[in-house]
Each structure stands twice: as C-alpha cells, then as structure tokens.
Design a protein that fits this description.
The chain is an alpha+beta fold. Helix content is 28%, strand content 27%. The chain folds into two domains: 4-87 and 196-219, no CATH class; 112-183, no CATH class. The chain starts with 8 loop residues before the first strand and ends with a helix.
C-alpha cells in the first residue's frame, strides 16, 4: 500500500477564488505516527542489521512482499530523513565528509569533541567478593575489574576524596583518574552511521492491521 495515496485531498487554487479554477491536491500536512507502545513492544518486532546496499523499499519488498510498505519501516524506526538517518555506504560517508570538511583527510584531523572517562588506577579490597564494588564519580560510572557498571550489591560510598579515592563502608577503596580522549569528526561520523545500522522490523503478521489503521485514521 502506497503511503501518500491514503492522504485526504482538498480543493485549492493559486488564482483568484472567484475564477473558480480549483484543483484537487493532496493534504501533505497530515501527520500520523506509530504509537510508542507498539514500537517498544518486543513481541511485535525483531531487529535487523542494515547491510551496505540495503534500502527501505528493498527490505520491505523482501520481508513484506511490497516495496511500497517501506513507510512502515521508516515509521517503526522514527526515521524522518531516509538519507541521513539511514546507514550510508563508504562512498556516501566519504562524500558527507568532503561536503562538511573539504576532504576525508580534513575530517580525520578535525576535532569533533573531547570525551571524559574515569579509569581505575588502583584498588584495595577488604572483602573477597570484588564484583560488588561499583562506584560512582560525578558524571561517570566506574567498573571494577570488569564487573557490571550497574551496582548489584548495596555497598555504600562513605567518602569521595579530592584525589578521586573512593572509600566504601567496609574499608575498601578505589583510586581513579580522569582520561580525556580526542574524537575526530571522521570517527564521530562513522560512529553515528553505525548507530543507525540496527533497525526494528514489525513482524509481517501485523502489517495488514497497521495499513488498516492508517486508512481509518486518514479517512476520519
């Protein structure tokens, strides 16, 4: 089902209305969207990693047997701009860098931002269960010896020293340091592109229902 063919029409004229020279046009200002409750319901979709060369209509043709159902893919992933919000291949990525920075080489030497990370310098444990020690420094979370960054055991922090030494209630301590990492425009463009690669696909069994609901909404 084609998306814009479902939109309501109205009469419009660029001339003096008294000339009665009206034309039927599509109301492109109509807006609909997929409900978040549907998008976030893991029982109705599965994830798909977009490969270079994949397009929304190509995926729709493969999984929904109709390239015109590409709008369902875009809606499900809240994609407004199907060019810049869809994963680009290497040639397209390089063209973005050339357009924005003059060349790929310039993108590689241009600063995008500086990242701050907190790393562990040394630790002192009073307990044998070292996996319990996960401490929070302002604006960061520290993971001890590869343990989860989410605290799973309530070991309260009783002191955070000015030298970033964190002391726990059982006498254990962690010494940390802040590391600044330079991120180039090149790396950030690549990172943003990879973040777009995993998309959600509504299971084919729900497609007909979605099309029917769209028609009902636009015909109201």
């Amino acid at each position: 089902m084609k998306y814009f063919e479902q939109f309501p029409n109205f009469l419009y004229t660029f001339d003096d209305p008294s000339l009665n020279n009206f034309q039927q046009v599509t109301d492109i200002f109509t807006r609909v969207r997929m409900l978040d409750s549907v998008i976030n319901n893991i029982s109705v979709y599965y994830t798909y990693d977009v490969n270079d060369g994949d397009t929304p209509d190509g995926i729709a043709s493969k999984y929904y047997n109709d390239p015109d159902r590409s709008w369902i893919i875009l809606f499900t992933n809240k994609i407004i701009d199907p060019y810049f919000q869809w994963p680009l291949d290497q040639n397209a990525l390089e063209q973005v860098m050339i357009n924005n920075y003059g060349s790929v080489a310039n993108a590689q030497i241009t600063t995008d931002h500086i990242e701050k990370q907190t790393v562990v310098i040394s630790t002192k444990y009073q307990s044998s269960n070292i996996q319990t020690y996960v401490c929070s420094i302002p604006n960061t979370v520290v993971s001890i010896d590869g343990s989860s960054i989410l605290p799973t055991v309530n070991t309260p922090v009783i002191h955070v020293g000015s030298n970033n030494i964190v002391t726990f209630s059982d006498g254990s301590s962690v010494d940390t340091s802040v590391v600044l990492t330079w991120v180039s425009a090149y790396d950030q463009i690549i990172q943003n592109n990879e973040a777009n690669r995993t998309i959600k696909l509504i299971q084919p069994g729900y497609v007909q229902q979605i099309e029917t609901e769209l028609q009902n909404l636009l015909n109201q």
